[in-house]
Structure formats: C-alpha cells, structure tokens
Here is the input.
Amino acid sequence: MSVQLLRKLGWWGVAMVEFRVDDSIGCPYLMEINGRFWGSLQLAIDAGVNFPRLLLDLALGKPIECRPYKVGVISRWWLGDLRRTLRVLRGRPAGYKGEFPGRLAGLREFFGKQPPGTLNQVFRRHDPLPACAEILSLAQGIRRLRN
Here is the structure.
C-alpha cells in the first residue's frame, strides 16, 4: 500500500509511511508520510543495510548492492527508555484503561540485564557528539517546561 501511495504521489526518494490498523474491522488507516529516514535507521545500519549510503549510490548512478542483513541485532535507545521509565514511575495516567506496568517492573526493565550484544542507538564511542546533542536537547526541553 505504501509503494502504491508513493507512486501515485510521484514520490522519489526516502519516505516513511505509517499506517494503523483498526482491529475491529481490520482496516488500515494512513497516519503519516515523512520524507526522511526513520528513527530506527541505526538499527538497519548495524544489521548491515546502510540506507543513506544506498541512496547516495543511487543518486550518483552507482550500482546498488543488495547484501544479506544480520538477523537478531538489538538496538536500545537509552534516553527513550529513561523517559518511559519516568512516566511509569509517575503511575497510571488518569483515564488510562489499558494495561500499565507497575513501578517495580518499570525499574526492572530499565536497569535489568539486556540481551547480549545490545547496541546503543545513539551513543557511539567513535562519534559521541550525537548523544551529547540529544542530552542537551532533553535538558533544554526540561528547562522550557520549568519556565
């Protein structure tokens, strides 16, 4: 459905198309189309599929090599997990009807043992600046909330 939609729009290049399915009738509804790479791009790169490189090669007219990717690669976004844990610690939001983890379970999930080989989504020893920028951005957001 995504490819059909993008073709009808005359789209060329990177896009992330998101649908949600209404479980009561099994009907997908378009949520959004983003003309950018997706947030989990690092996971694909870690698994051996470098989409930015493939796009660059395509734009330069170079041959595109399709190689097998690694299965079982695990990526963890620590800052996102921290934000989720803080939300869990605040407790179930008023009016929330779904299942909600307990505080102890939330802490266990955050601090507990991670699967072997888990990679950090943002922080990389050879390139720590994106993680620093993410932390600074979070700090600025917290400061704005307090003012």
